[in-house]
Amino acid sequence: MIFLLLLFICQSDSSSSVVVAGYNVSASAGSRVVLQCVSGRMVWTRDRVRDRQRVVHWDLYRAHPDYAMERVVDMFSAGDQRIYNSYNLGRVGITQTAFRDGNFSLVIKDVTMNDRGLYSCNLHHLYCHLYETVRVQLNVTKSRRKEQRFWDGQKAVYVVLLGSTVVLPCINRRNVWTDWSNDEEDQQVVHWDRQSPGIRHDRADRLVDLYASGEQRSYGPLFLQRKMNISNQAFSEGDFSLTISDLQPTDEGMYSCHLHHHYCGLHERREFQVTVEPPIFFVALSACLMPETPKPHTLPNNTMKAESPRVINVILPDQRHHFLLPLGYVLTSFLLLVFIILIIILITRRRKIKGLNCNISMSPSHCDRSSRSHSSSDDFEMDVTEVNMCNEEERRFGELDGKLCACF
To answer: Which Gene3D superfamilies match (predicted)?
Structure first.
């Protein structure tokens, strides 16, 4: 697993390389690890049309009336110059020796009010992926006393006299803009170093050197050279990654990838802190933890018979109070039956008592009427007055019964 630790730019002196990134790489022992070091600027893609590799162009930005940007002139390293406005032919241009002496200044003759604006000098190096810009503000005046040149903090400002000739400066004399080496492959080199724990950077061991010409030099013991290698297509693809096979604890340390392109002025370094962890083993489950398979019974006649499994299916109802439901039904039915029997007994006894009272205290005709009235289902209810009368007759009957008993 690779973790990005830092990304910074620092340079101690002109000869040292620039540290652009640092990584922490952790892998298990015995594994294969790749330290990635990729840079598109180191791709060796020499263009046979060499004069198309570098170009300079001047642009003009007008603040009014339409705030437009227009191309004034451009020139390639071969010296071909192109003017975009026919009005500027013979009046505006760049010196033909610009890519030899590094002077890309724009010369404007017979300055007019229409030449006012913000000019930009743009340098492009397609091979080295370099882009530089210089800006100059041009103002035109009719008074000679107002002519001046100054720096406003962001750009140079030129105030020139109307009708005069002005040179807008753009000078860059770096070799990358003024020279082209015939031995380009000798100026591109990549090398890997390794610092063991406790070793300083200036005492690091060189592992491998790789040149754009295809030459590769490996250092150290033979077994170390075989386990560390770089692709043969590194300069074609821009991939200078170092592959380490069969990683061991002795391979720990700080690895650094140095990229040098002397022609383009590129000097970069990427650092990798490699840590080796114990190997990972996949331990299988012990056989004792697995359930044992029952062996089939052996019959006397050496015939094998598989014993059929004995399965008991138990069906449990969903509700937990299923035993109380039948009992509730039985108790409810029993109580209802007892209630009905009790009502029947009470009604029968009451009718017997009232029939006896009517036989003793009332006339036969009345009793007959009463019996008929009581026997009929339609005249079952009694009037309140009759109930009071029957109660009074019962008391009299009780007194008469007592007297008869005394006489006998």
So the answer is: Immunoglobulins
Task: State the Cα–Cα distance between residues 19 and 210, nearest whole angstrom.
Answer: 19
Number of domains within the chain: 3
Question: Looking at residue 171, what is its pLDDT?
Answer: 92
How far is the C-alpha of 133 from the C-alpha of 401, rounded, in Å? 147
Contact 215, 304 (CB under 8 A): no
The mean per-residue pLDDT over the stretch 123-148 comes to: 91
Cα–Cα distance list, 37 to 15, 186, 238, 276 (Å): 21, 20, 9, 20
d(CA 258, CA 363): 144
Q: What span, in angstroms and rounded, lies between the C-alpha atoms of 38 and 20?
A: 12
Query: Is 188 contained in some domain?
Result: yes
Residues 165 and 192 in one domain: no
Model confidence pLDDT, tens digit, residues 264-282: 788 888 899 998 888 876 4
CA 308 to chain centre: 55
- pLDDT band for 155, please (50, 70, 90 cuts): very high
Tokens coding 290 = 């697995």
Does residue 83 fall inside a structural domain?
Answer: no
Q: Are 276 and 29 in contact (CB under 8 A)?
A: yes
User: In whole angstroms, what is the distance from residue 166 CA to residue 140 CA?
Assistant: 10
List the one residue out of 187, 186, 190 whose CA is nearest residue 235: 190
Residue 215 has pLDDT above 50, yes or no: yes
What secondary structure, in 3-state letters, does 385-405 show? HHHHHHHHHHHHHHHHHHHHH
**Using an 8 Å Cβ cutoff, are 148 and 159 in contact?**
yes
Q: What is the dihedral of CA 82, 86, 87, 90, to 10 degrees?
A: 50
Tens digits of per-residue pLDDT, 7-54? 333 333 334 677 888 888 888 888 888 888 888 777 766 555 554 578
Written as six digits, the tokens of 241 are 């990654």
Q: How far, in Å, CA of 19 to CA of 268, rounded?
A: 6
Asked if 321 and 329 touch (Cβ cutoff 8 Å), the reply is: no
Q: Give 56-87 pLDDT, tens digit per residue.
A: 999 999 877 777 889 999 998 877 889 999 99
Give the H/E segment covering residue 34: strand 33-35
Q: Of 169, 193, 212, which marks where a domain is finished?
A: 169
pLDDT of residue 41: 73
